[in-house]
Amino acid sequence: MNFPNDTKARWMAPAAALLLFLVVSIFYFAPQFRGEVLPQHDVLQYRGMNSDIERTRTQTGEDPQWTGGMFGGMPAYLINVAYPAQLVKQSVGRISKIMDIPASLLFFSMVAMWLMLLMFGVNPWVGIVPALAYGLSTYFLLSIGAGHITKMWAVVYAPLMMGGAWITLRGNMWVGGALTALAASLEIGANHPQITYYFLLAMGLFWLSEGIVALRQRHLASFARRTAVLAAAGILAAGSNFSPLWYTLQHSKETTRGGSELAEAGEETSRGLDLEYATAWSYGRAESFNLLVPDFMGRDSATGFSSDGEVAAVLNDYGLRGAAEQLPAYWGEQPYTGGPTYLGAAALMLAALGIALASGRNKWWLVAASVAALLLAWGHNFMGLTQLAFKYLPGYDKFRTVTMILVIVQWAVPLLGALALMPLWRGEVPRRRLLRALGWSAGITGGLCLVLALGGGSLFDFGRTESTTFMTDQFHHIFQANGMQEYIDRGADVEWGEAAGAAMAAERARMMSADAWRSLLFVVLAAGCVALYAFGRIRRGALVALLGVVVVADLLPVDRRFLSDENFVPARRQQIVPTAADKEILADKGEPGYRVFNLTVSPFNDATTSYFHRSVGGYHGAKLSRYQDLIDRYLSNGDEQVLDMLNTRYLIVPGDDGTPQIVRRTTAFGAAWFVDSLLEASTPREEIELLGQVNLRTTAVVAESAREAMQGFRPAKEDSLATARITLTEYRPNRLVYEYSAPREAMALFSEIYYDKGWRAFVDGQEAPYFRADYLLRAMLLPEGDHTVEWRFRAPGWGAAETVTGICSALILLGAVAALLLSLRRRKVAGTDTEQPDGPKSQKGQKGE
To answer: What local confidence, expressed as pLDDT, does residue 382 receive?
Structure first.
């Protein structure tokens, strides 16, 4: 691949890279191009979340910024709000629309990694191999299959952001600053703060490493200037997303990410997620081996044992045919997993080679980032470090599923591989040094595979103890249910449980061993390619091509264990259609604003109900914390009075034949109602407890802090409000209109969620005060007579926030254009680079060798 230095040659590598990435993406997601679709859980849930918002946009032409479809109502900031001033996202970000998802996610993840490697100074031909390793990392395909779209776009843009930081601190700081601002703007705009946060931690380690180098070389002034440019780029990137960031920050304090207000007297109120909740998905220490051996932990939670394996044979002997396929092969600690975080044995071998060959300045910060990420992914299995991170890393306590930080390792491993390949491409590594480094890297990765293949069965118990206990309990229940007490008396439940547990452990051990041999094969293949190059049997172009084939052959089959053509379905099967129960509820044209409680699904982990109705439940990782408190205390138990105050008119329940059926509730309080009296509570805990102790139809529970808004309220005498009425006449998520008539001044409660950062109330067009009652509803003191109450929602300070967003976005785009022109000018002046030798340097004449 030694091409002449002309324009055609310079474009061959980019054209080949893009074509290869496109072919891989189309091949992998071929059903997409036949009109089939990929059922993605989170995408389906998002359609439910977003239905109320899109319907309002279609019908009124305005963006509601609020949804009434989930959890009684909540801001739409973390769902779907239109921010027209995000000019970077609306222009450069549109490039990603040239291809539909999911193929676009795979294609652009490889393209972005390849572009980042160019920024790091990696040859475009060399960059193809690590780009393939990055895009085909198994975790990414698992995320695509689950429908984690915002996460994937954040993963796509993150390498570009890191590449910009690299140029800023090591190259032309103005070009680097412009690229960093552009990429970081897209990264933040992807709206997955957790992924962005983790990559910023990695960037912080890179900055610290460069600072140490600057201190040693006495270049602190230059480092300070570069740091200032990098900081300015970050500020502009944040500013170009100021609107969503500002409103998300404002909103997060009210959500579960901001902690609950229900603290005992004298107890410090939590400012973040509960530590136990945040670390529920923690990587097991031993589970880390599946970075190298995919089936080390028995694959995913949904995969059962083989129908012709040892477990099936044992259970068949006990009369339980077909039971083996229902038992989980996964034996790790996570509550549920869609599959392993497999990085590729070949990619890990190359990364180890990179550690052996790369300079300290290039590698140690990457090694530190990878080790820190792995230890933090262990979560409660390495609680000391996790607690330190929760306590001292700003914002770290806002995120759950700590295993997600492994994306840093998935990014660092291919990059380390690139650092190994570049000196080989340039012929800078003497043969002896290369062979010694290859021996260490292949020996460590391949040796570990060999140990697991030969001796793994004696090193781990493969969940035998837990499986034995579980199966013993199952047999015990079976014997009891079938009146087989004699089996229990003679200990058959224990004996059969031990046999089944041993079979499960043995089959898991064989799965691990088979994949350990498989990983060893790919380590050997990758190492063999490098060895052939070292001995001059192949040239550098062949080395890169062969390694690309090995990486794809390694990762692709593992990826397709979890996401393949079989996962696609005809598009018509993904259409959300109303059930007979839904249609019956939709036919109700009475007073709008009523809610539905769907018990045929997990109501607080499912948003599909919201596609058609205002749901009591929903699906969101950052619901309002007070609503979560209500779920924990009352709604999870189906408390009738709390359902009434939420105007729950319908239940959807499973019928005798399993089909959804409706139950019409007649006790719901309505969209709004008048109360006779108020009961003050001194703390949030007292507020929520009183909900279960008073008649909420006639009495409102209010906080002492609302006393000023209640001034002038007089408890109603018996039957003094008998003729009062209040009716919801118009409903939109962001606008509600009520007509009421009251013979005297009265206190009205509205079955709508209290949120004072955007909601405004008007009586006959004049703004009026309101306050919170019944822990999370709105209340107003209304004048006597016949009047109209209108509620409107608009994000506060919208004009100012969008102005800041637009100005910063425009500056980034101008900077990107300037950087492009500057780069083209310098490239034209500099001419073309001189080709490097095609092979490792000989031993002779090399210093230190």
So the answer is: 93
Q: What is the per-residue pLDDT for 848?
A: 32
Ramachandran sector of residue 442 (left: φ over 0; alpha: ψ -120 to 50; beta: rest): alpha
- Same domain flag for 740 and 821: no
Residues 33 and 95 in one domain: yes
Same domain, 694 and 817: no
Name, in order, each residue with C-beta under 8 angstroms of 338's C-beta and a sequence gap of 6 or more.
Answer: 142, 145, 146, 300, 301, 302, 562
Angstrom distance (rounded) from CA 57 to CA 594: 21
Domain that holds residue 827: 6-37+83-252+798-832
Radius of gyration over every alpha carbon of the chain, rounded to an integer in angstroms: 31
Question: Is residue 505 within 8 Å of residue 467, measured between CB atoms?
Answer: yes
pLDDT tens track for 209-238: 999 999 999 999 999 999 999 999 999 999
The predicted structure's pLDDT at residue 8: 63
814 and 780: one domain?
no
DSSP state of 694: S
| Nearest-angstrom CA–CA distance, 236 and 360 | 32
390-434: per-residue pLDDT in tens?
989 998 988 888 999 999 999 999 999 999 999 999 999 999 999
Q: Characterize the bridge pairing of strands 759-763 and 766-768.
A: antiparallel
Q: 476 pLDDT exceeds 70?
A: yes
Same domain, 100 and 214: yes
Q: Provide the domain count of the chain.
A: 2
Rounded mean pLDDT, 58-71? 94
Q: What is the DSSP string of 128-163?
A: HHHHHHHHT-HHHHHHHHHT-HHHHHHHHHHHHHHH
CA gap 720, 511 in Å, rounded: 76
Is the pLDDT at 838 greater than 70, yes or no?
no
Look at residue 271 in the predicted model and tell me its pLDDT.
Answer: 59
Beta strands in 592-659 (DSSP E): 595-598, 648-654
**SS3 category, 672:** strand
165-199 burial: b if 16+ Cβ within 10 Å, else e: bbbbbbeebebbbbbbbbbbbbbbbbbbbbbbbbb
CB atoms under 10 Å from CB of 814, counted, come to: 11
Backbone φ and ψ for 793, nearest 5 degrees, come out as -120, 130
Q: Which residues contact 553 (CB under 8 A, 6 or more apart)?
A: 522
Q: Tokens 């109120």 correspond to what residue?
A: 269
Residues 709 and 761 in one domain: yes
Distance CA 241, CA 259 (A): 25
Q: Please list, in sequence order, all residues whose beta carbon lies within 8 angstroms of the beta carbon of residue 733, skipping any fewer than 6 positions away.
A: 52, 53, 56, 64, 66, 67, 68, 69, 73, 76, 793
pLDDT at 130: 97
CA angle 225, 231, 237 (to 5 degrees): 140
Q: Is residue 351 assigned to a domain?
A: no
Q: What are phi and psi of 199, to 5 degrees?
A: -70, -30
Nearest to 88 by CA among 157, 166, 174: 157
**pLDDT for 3 beyond 50:** no
Mean pLDDT score across all residues of the chain: 90
Q: Is 269 helix (H, G, I), strand (E, B) or coil?
A: coil
- 3 state DSSP class of 674: strand
Q: Is the pLDDT of residue 179 over 70?
A: yes
Residue 451 included in any domain:
no
Mean pLDDT of 64-81: 93
Instruction: Judge whether 230 lies within some domain.
Output: yes
The alpha carbon dihedral of 159, 163, 169, 173 has a sign of negative
The reply to whether 697 falls in a domain is yes
pLDDT at 420: 95
Integer Cα distance of 542 and 617 in angstroms: 57
Q: Cα–Cα distances in Å, from 564 out to 78, 83, 95, 558, 687? A: 30, 36, 26, 10, 51
697 and 811 part of one domain:
no
Q: What is the DSSP string of 631-650?
A: HHHTGGGT-HHHHHHTTEEE
Per DSSP, the three-state class of 700 is: strand
